[in-house]
Write a structure and sequence with these properties.
With 190 residues, the protein is of the alpha/beta class. Helices cover 35% and strands 22% of the residues. The protein has six helices and seven strands. The protein has helices spanning 18-31, 63-66, 75-82, 98-105, 120-132, 171-189, and strands at 7-10, 36-46, 56-62, 87-88, 113-115, 137-141, 156-165. Strands 1, 2, 3, 4, 5, 6 and 7 form a seven-stranded mixed β-sheet that branches. It is elongated. The chain starts with 6 loop residues before the first strand and ends with a helix. The model has no long low-confidence stretch (mean pLDDT 92).
Protein backbone atom coordinates (compact mmCIF):
# COMPACT_ATOMS: atom_id res chain seq x y z
CA UNK A 1 0.00 0.00 0.00
CA UNK A 2 2.79 2.41 0.88
CA UNK A 3 4.56 1.87 -2.45
CA UNK A 4 1.45 2.38 -4.60
CA UNK A 5 -0.25 5.23 -2.76
CA UNK A 6 -0.46 8.68 -4.31
CA UNK A 7 -1.51 10.27 -1.02
CA UNK A 8 -0.47 9.21 2.49
CA UNK A 9 -1.91 10.51 5.76
CA UNK A 10 0.39 10.38 8.78
CA UNK A 11 -1.90 10.77 11.78
CA UNK A 12 -1.35 11.27 15.50
CA UNK A 13 1.80 13.29 14.95
CA UNK A 14 1.05 15.15 18.17
CA UNK A 15 0.65 12.05 20.35
CA UNK A 16 2.94 9.43 18.76
CA UNK A 17 6.59 9.30 19.83
CA UNK A 18 8.67 11.81 17.85
CA UNK A 19 11.09 9.05 16.82
CA UNK A 20 8.21 6.97 15.46
CA UNK A 21 6.85 9.84 13.35
CA UNK A 22 10.37 10.55 12.07
CA UNK A 23 10.79 6.87 11.12
CA UNK A 24 7.46 6.82 9.25
CA UNK A 25 8.40 9.99 7.36
CA UNK A 26 11.84 8.53 6.51
CA UNK A 27 10.21 5.32 5.27
CA UNK A 28 7.88 7.31 3.04
CA UNK A 29 10.78 9.35 1.64
CA UNK A 30 12.74 6.17 0.89
CA UNK A 31 9.91 4.00 -0.47
CA UNK A 32 7.50 6.47 -2.12
CA UNK A 33 9.05 9.93 -2.38
CA UNK A 34 6.52 11.06 -5.01
CA UNK A 35 3.53 10.59 -2.70
CA UNK A 36 1.75 13.62 -1.26
CA UNK A 37 2.05 13.43 2.53
CA UNK A 38 -0.63 14.94 4.73
CA UNK A 39 0.24 15.30 8.41
CA UNK A 40 -2.63 15.20 10.87
CA UNK A 41 -3.61 14.84 14.48
CA UNK A 42 -6.66 13.34 16.14
CA UNK A 43 -8.51 15.80 18.36
CA UNK A 44 -10.25 13.93 21.16
CA UNK A 45 -13.72 14.89 22.38
CA UNK A 46 -15.70 13.52 25.35
CA UNK A 47 -19.48 13.82 25.49
CA UNK A 48 -19.66 13.97 29.33
CA UNK A 49 -16.23 14.90 30.75
CA UNK A 50 -17.69 15.37 34.24
CA UNK A 51 -17.81 11.56 34.46
CA UNK A 52 -14.01 11.54 34.29
CA UNK A 53 -12.87 14.52 36.36
CA UNK A 54 -11.93 13.41 39.87
CA UNK A 55 -13.22 9.85 39.27
CA UNK A 56 -11.80 6.34 39.31
CA UNK A 57 -12.51 5.26 35.75
CA UNK A 58 -12.50 2.05 33.76
CA UNK A 59 -11.33 2.77 30.22
CA UNK A 60 -12.64 0.54 27.43
CA UNK A 61 -10.64 0.90 24.22
CA UNK A 62 -10.92 -0.48 20.68
CA UNK A 63 -9.31 -3.91 21.09
CA UNK A 64 -7.54 -4.27 17.74
CA UNK A 65 -5.90 -0.86 18.19
CA UNK A 66 -4.31 -2.09 21.42
CA UNK A 67 -3.56 -5.65 20.42
CA UNK A 68 -2.79 -5.83 16.71
CA UNK A 69 -1.84 -2.14 16.60
CA UNK A 70 0.58 -2.82 19.47
CA UNK A 71 -0.54 0.27 21.38
CA UNK A 72 -0.43 0.39 25.18
CA UNK A 73 -3.23 2.95 25.20
CA UNK A 74 -5.70 4.69 22.94
CA UNK A 75 -7.98 7.71 22.86
CA UNK A 76 -9.82 6.66 26.03
CA UNK A 77 -6.67 6.77 28.13
CA UNK A 78 -5.69 10.12 26.64
CA UNK A 79 -9.17 11.47 27.46
CA UNK A 80 -9.00 10.12 31.02
CA UNK A 81 -5.68 11.85 31.63
CA UNK A 82 -6.72 15.07 29.86
CA UNK A 83 -9.92 15.36 31.93
CA UNK A 84 -8.33 14.62 35.30
CA UNK A 85 -9.29 11.08 36.29
CA UNK A 86 -7.84 10.42 39.74
CA UNK A 87 -7.23 6.78 38.83
CA UNK A 88 -7.51 4.48 35.87
CA UNK A 89 -8.68 1.14 37.19
CA UNK A 90 -6.76 -1.86 35.87
CA UNK A 91 -9.23 -4.52 34.67
CA UNK A 92 -6.67 -7.33 34.37
CA UNK A 93 -7.33 -8.86 37.82
CA UNK A 94 -11.04 -9.05 36.94
CA UNK A 95 -10.72 -10.33 33.36
CA UNK A 96 -13.24 -12.98 32.36
CA UNK A 97 -13.34 -15.58 29.61
CA UNK A 98 -11.34 -14.83 26.47
CA UNK A 99 -10.07 -11.55 27.92
CA UNK A 100 -7.79 -13.50 30.28
CA UNK A 101 -5.95 -14.89 27.24
CA UNK A 102 -6.01 -11.52 25.49
CA UNK A 103 -4.11 -9.90 28.37
CA UNK A 104 -1.61 -12.80 28.44
CA UNK A 105 -1.06 -12.77 24.67
CA UNK A 106 -0.71 -8.96 24.43
CA UNK A 107 1.30 -7.98 27.55
CA UNK A 108 1.90 -4.39 26.38
CA UNK A 109 -1.78 -3.52 26.85
CA UNK A 110 -1.77 -1.13 29.77
CA UNK A 111 -4.68 -0.50 32.13
CA UNK A 112 -7.29 -0.33 29.39
CA UNK A 113 -9.93 -2.97 28.76
CA UNK A 114 -9.82 -3.97 25.09
CA UNK A 115 -13.17 -4.56 23.38
CA UNK A 116 -12.02 -7.40 21.14
CA UNK A 117 -15.17 -7.83 19.10
CA UNK A 118 -18.93 -7.80 19.14
CA UNK A 119 -19.96 -11.44 18.95
CA UNK A 120 -22.25 -12.71 21.70
CA UNK A 121 -19.36 -14.48 23.45
CA UNK A 122 -17.00 -11.49 23.22
CA UNK A 123 -19.66 -9.11 24.51
CA UNK A 124 -20.44 -11.55 27.34
CA UNK A 125 -16.79 -11.66 28.43
CA UNK A 126 -16.55 -7.89 28.20
CA UNK A 127 -19.74 -7.34 30.21
CA UNK A 128 -18.62 -9.81 32.90
CA UNK A 129 -15.24 -8.09 33.19
CA UNK A 130 -16.88 -4.66 33.45
CA UNK A 131 -19.27 -5.90 36.17
CA UNK A 132 -16.35 -7.34 38.16
CA UNK A 133 -14.28 -4.14 38.02
CA UNK A 134 -14.87 -1.54 40.72
CA UNK A 135 -14.91 2.02 39.40
CA UNK A 136 -16.88 5.27 39.60
CA UNK A 137 -17.56 5.58 35.89
CA UNK A 138 -16.64 4.12 32.51
CA UNK A 139 -14.87 5.76 29.58
CA UNK A 140 -15.96 4.13 26.30
CA UNK A 141 -13.54 4.73 23.43
CA UNK A 142 -14.80 2.13 20.97
CA UNK A 143 -16.18 2.62 17.46
CA UNK A 144 -19.63 1.51 18.61
CA UNK A 145 -21.70 2.69 21.55
CA UNK A 146 -21.21 -0.22 23.95
CA UNK A 147 -24.12 1.02 26.05
CA UNK A 148 -26.41 -0.12 23.24
CA UNK A 149 -24.89 -3.63 23.19
CA UNK A 150 -24.26 -4.46 26.85
CA UNK A 151 -25.46 -3.20 30.20
CA UNK A 152 -22.86 -0.87 31.66
CA UNK A 153 -23.28 -0.89 35.45
CA UNK A 154 -21.89 2.61 35.97
CA UNK A 155 -22.44 5.96 34.25
CA UNK A 156 -20.39 6.20 31.08
CA UNK A 157 -19.10 8.75 28.64
CA UNK A 158 -18.07 8.30 25.03
CA UNK A 159 -14.83 9.38 23.42
CA UNK A 160 -14.60 10.37 19.77
CA UNK A 161 -12.06 12.15 17.67
CA UNK A 162 -11.83 14.19 14.52
CA UNK A 163 -9.01 14.30 12.03
CA UNK A 164 -7.30 17.70 11.86
CA UNK A 165 -4.95 18.07 8.93
CA UNK A 166 -2.08 20.41 9.83
CA UNK A 167 -0.02 20.39 6.64
CA UNK A 168 -0.67 21.67 3.16
CA UNK A 169 -1.97 20.52 0.87
CA UNK A 170 -4.76 19.06 2.96
CA UNK A 171 -7.02 16.24 1.79
CA UNK A 172 -9.68 18.59 0.38
CA UNK A 173 -7.06 20.35 -1.73
CA UNK A 174 -5.63 17.05 -2.97
CA UNK A 175 -9.11 15.81 -3.91
CA UNK A 176 -10.00 19.10 -5.60
CA UNK A 177 -6.83 18.88 -7.71
CA UNK A 178 -7.53 15.24 -8.57
CA UNK A 179 -11.12 15.93 -9.59
CA UNK A 180 -10.22 19.00 -11.64
CA UNK A 181 -7.48 17.15 -13.51
CA UNK A 182 -9.78 14.22 -14.25
CA UNK A 183 -12.64 16.43 -15.38
CA UNK A 184 -10.24 18.19 -17.78
CA UNK A 185 -8.99 14.83 -19.08
CA UNK A 186 -12.52 13.56 -19.65
CA UNK A 187 -13.59 16.80 -21.38
CA UNK A 188 -10.63 16.72 -23.75
CA UNK A 189 -11.35 13.08 -24.61
CA UNK A 190 -15.05 13.79 -25.27
Amino acid sequence: NLRGAQVLIVNKIDSAPVEGVAQVMANIAAINPAATVIQARSNIAVDRPELITGKRVLVIEDGPTLTHGEMAYGSGMIAAQKHGAIAIVDPKPNAKGSLIETFKHFPWVGSALPAMGYSEAQLGDLAATVRATTCDSIVVATPVDLGRLIVLPKPYCRVSYDLEEISRPDLAQVLDHFLLSHVRCNQSEG
